[in-house]
Design brief:
This protein is α+β, with helices and mostly antiparallel strands. The chain is about 40% helix and about 30% strand.
């Protein structure tokens, strides 16, 4: 059998081909091993090395900042959290709340979303971190990345289950239309409708909504409602409904309702949305709304909450002062200050322009 030893011509051809192949000046990978090779005078850099350099620059914190924090027993740095895929729109909306959950896992640490870098196939999130020196910078960075990865798996699983539930609800809607009226009549006859309940009713709406452009209105309303889908059911919200840009919910637990409203303000505030809230306690009537085919609430406390909500400043929860005298109101959990506001709509015997005293309520830190 003839030998397959390369000829001189083959060697010359291979050498010429090798001369045409370009290599990254940093990692030595050829143009065939990377997605993109960027040329400069006598130097080449691949997309992988560019990404690595960006990460180094992103995580750089000035010596002045570091020294200032060390004097207070703290370290300050930026950590890049890479994602294997692009973040879904709902994940982007929930990102501040997501990293607030991460922050809760590390006592005395402050974690903020500094930047979101969107790429074709995968995203990165840059986080500003302030933490006690005892954690150790590299160790804490890795722990944050690991926890972020685990929580995202749980979040994706939750969103997947949520989508399945929505599909199931859609399939059941036709059946519900056929039998709901029959079941409702049966419940009425048996006297099983709630009738009246004592609830704290919370109203949350977007400050400056009427002055926003149409696209911005749609964005913030979607954000308000998507956050509400996670928070309200988890905090035992009842008879949840929307009134335009406002979200309304009732709670049997007075302190739980106030805490839930504060959580709403915090989550949306981090997303740059100014939200205001009101709360009012009292007896409400629970009734079936034939128009929306769902249970609904009305009564004096519902009207009072609706009137007061428009008087709150962005980031505030306001309530009538008599809520402070409720036997369940926990003074250990909330900070309270009183202020006087002018009514914009009639409320009971008071008329537009009348002064009314209200209280501004916020949870105490770590309560």
């Amino acid at each position: 059998m003839a030998s397959e030893t390369p000829t001189t011509q083959d060697k010359d051809k291979a050498a010429a081909q090798d001369k045409k192949t370009l290599y990254c000046s940093f990692c030595a990978k050829s143009q065939h091993e990377v997605r993109k090779l960027i040329a400069a005078p006598a130097v080449f850099i691949c997309d992988e090395c560019v990404e690595l350099c960006e990460g180094i620059l992103d995580e750089d914190v000035t010596d002045v900042e570091k020294a200032d924090h060390r004097q207070r027993g703290l370290m300050r740095f930026v950590v890049t959290v890479p994602y294997a895929t692009r973040l879904a729109d709902l994940e982007l909306q929930m990102l501040p709340a997501f990293y607030q959950k991460v922050e809760e896992a590390f006592p005395k640490c402050k974690i903020e979303v500094a930047q979101i870098k969107r790429n074709r196939n995968a995203d990165k999130v840059l986080l500003k971190v302030s933490a006690p020196i005892e954690y150790g910078e590299e160790s804490l960075k890795q722990q944050i990345r690991d926890l972020s990865a685990r929580l995202r798996v749980e979040q994706i699983r939750y969103l997947s289950e949520k989508k399945k539930r929505e599909q199931l609800e859609q399939k059941l809607s036709t059946l519900k239309e056929d039998v709901f009226d029959i079941l409702l009549e049966k419940v009425k006859k048996e006297g099983a409708l709630p009738g009246h309940q004592e609830l704290i009713v919370t109203f949350l709406d977007i400050a400056g909504f009427t002055n926003m452009a149409d696209a911005e209105r749609a964005r913030v309303v979607d954000l308000l409602r998507s956050v509400g889908q996670f928070i309200l059911p988890a905090d035992s919200g009842l008879y949840i409904n929307t009134w335009g840009d406002a979200v309304v919910a009732g709670f049997e637990d007075l302190n739980g309702g106030l805490k839930c409203a504060a959580k709403f303000l915090d989550h949306l505030g981090v997303s740059g949305v100014d939200v205001r809230a009101s709360a009012a306690w009292g007896l409400v009537r629970v009734k079936y709304n034939a128009l929306t085919k769902r249970m609904d609430i009305d009564g004096d406390s519902v009207n009072e909450g609706a009137r007061l909500e428009a008087l709150a400043d962005p980031g505030e929860i306001i309530a009538p002062v008599d809520i402070l005298h409720h036997p369940d109101f926990d003074t250990e959990r909330f900070l309270v200050r009183r202020k006087t506001v002018k009514l914009k709509k009639d409320l009971g015997p008071k008329r537009v322009g009348d002064d009314v005293e209200v209280c501004v309520i916020r949870p105490k830190p770590n309560s």
